[in-house]
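Quick one - first record:
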Amino acid sequence: MTGPGVLPAQQIRALIEAGAIGLSAPLDDGQVQPASLDLRLGDVAYRMRASFLAGAGATVAERLADFEMHRIDLTGGAVLEKGCVYVVPLMERLALPEGVAAVANAKSSTGRLDLLTRAITDGGVEFDRIRPGYHGPLYAEICPRSFSVLVRPGQRLNQIRFRRGQAVLDDAELTALHRAVGLVAGGPAVISEGLGFSVDLKPETGDLVGYRAKPHSGVIDLDRIGGHDPAEFWEEIRTDRGRIILDPGAFYILVSRESVHIPPDYAAEMAPYLAMVGEFRVHYAGFFDPGFGHDAAGGTGSRGVLEVRCHEAPFVLEHGQVVGRLVYERMAARPETLYGAGIASNYQGQGLKLSKHFRAP
């Protein structure tokens, strides 16, 4: 075994071979990513009265019995409705070694659909955080916020990252890494408990700065890649003033001013800049894999897409306002394949971009 850090693809495969990650169906092509494993929906969804955590000493199955309203067979496809809460058992389960913990997060395309998807576990007291040595099943809690979605077994809405020990870079280490390889371009390196990034509301060409989800749209079929008309689901946000006003309850797709670089020996996770940076929350999909924005992997100029939801009050968002931060971690070893290098990576080299389910505008 190697030292502390995020486990790369080859070590994730070793965990599968050793039985530490159990599969109810064979691995799909591309399911193992450079620094994470995609998780697959099982064949039933439970419609819940409310979101929940199992809590210490309790199992998710016990909580399902407490809060289940009805169950839905996903085998032939089923619609998960906007504003409802569902729990879906996943095809993967864990028998982690002591000293190996895990963290889950929504995949990029899931977050861009405002599809709140979080992992829950037996005995869990936090969403998306899985304790070292956990043995048990995995579940996805799914709450469509803006659009109803058509789902089927085997679809991959969230992903899991494994880590051994603690390998987060402190600000001094992050500053040194930026000086050595350049972690951002297009704006200053704001380093404070991670690498800060800001919103771009002054595009180099045109005045399109983002998209706002329309409130009364149709169903998105998650298997129809490139098959939906953006105009049916999104309103374009344009400005030539370098600012927009976020509406309470609305969901926006924006983009970072800076292009981001994740070197091959590192991984990153997006986190809020401050607990109360303003009346809005940035991001659902928080994993950045090794090689994102890396020149040699075809990622020059890759910017971070921001999934923004405004809370109680209208909020003025200004160009260049710092809205989030990237927390960098060392990899336990360099992955055998980098993001965007010979694998299906939908967002390498990206700018402002909707999820892969929509036709290019």
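second record:
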Amino acid sequence: MNKFDGISVFVQVNDSGSYSAAGRVLGVSASAIGKAIVRLEERLGVRLFHRNNRSIGLTPEGAVFLAHCQNILAELAVAESDLSTAQEQPSGKLRVSAPVASEGWTCVFLQFMAKFPQIELEVSYTNRLVDLVEEGFDVVLRIGPLQDSRLLTRRLGTFSLRLVASPGYLEQRGTPETIGDLLSHDCLRNRNVSSHRIDNWPLGPEHAHVNAGLANRLVADHYAVLLSATLNGFGIGCLPSFWADEHIASGALRHLLADQTANQRAVSAVWPGARGFPVRLAAFVDFMARNLPPILR
């Protein structure tokens, strides 16, 4: 027997309480078990068990050695499990809750489906703060600070909110040069579907009075509506970078007060730790961590 065999025999003898019982578990004779223990003791230079005709018990040295052996075998089991997991093809149903986001997010989901054809993906789009345990989601993509410390999380990337307006609107109403100038403009605002409050714009705490005094030309709980209204010149919108940037690049929108409204928002994957970390979930989280950040930026 090799060194690992000797260790596993030693642990099994302790667990079973006798050579014969350990032999039945391992499928060898009591004599073979006894010889393996003797060889292990000779190699270590210590006695591991007190033995008599009726019972067997650990020596003090055996008790110390047992703790180390149990740790070794536990680490070996984890390593074997990890290798098995790595080789296993992800499959099965995966329920995902994601915020109502731009077409780029959908493209990432479709890329994931193409790479993992054996996973049945179900995506629920909502800006509501879902209860993933009560509602049966395997993982939630969540924007902003995380509230429940009992959940496991992984940050996937960051994005920014941008104040934007169409060239036509700015020609008609003028371009704001300071945050205070926003008070004289029509504003297109987002209502948070969980808190039911209108989201503040990233103007900084010293400009809280400006947020409170903005003239709301339109309030909606869907950024697609706010984007359309902004593109059509109805006012200044505050849009996530993944909604706004392609239109800024094309010239359809202009980024306003960029140096005065610098901000960053996190996107995280959140899942319940009590369910473990199945292969399909690990594949999804890793894929999002690699492929979502370019969309967010």
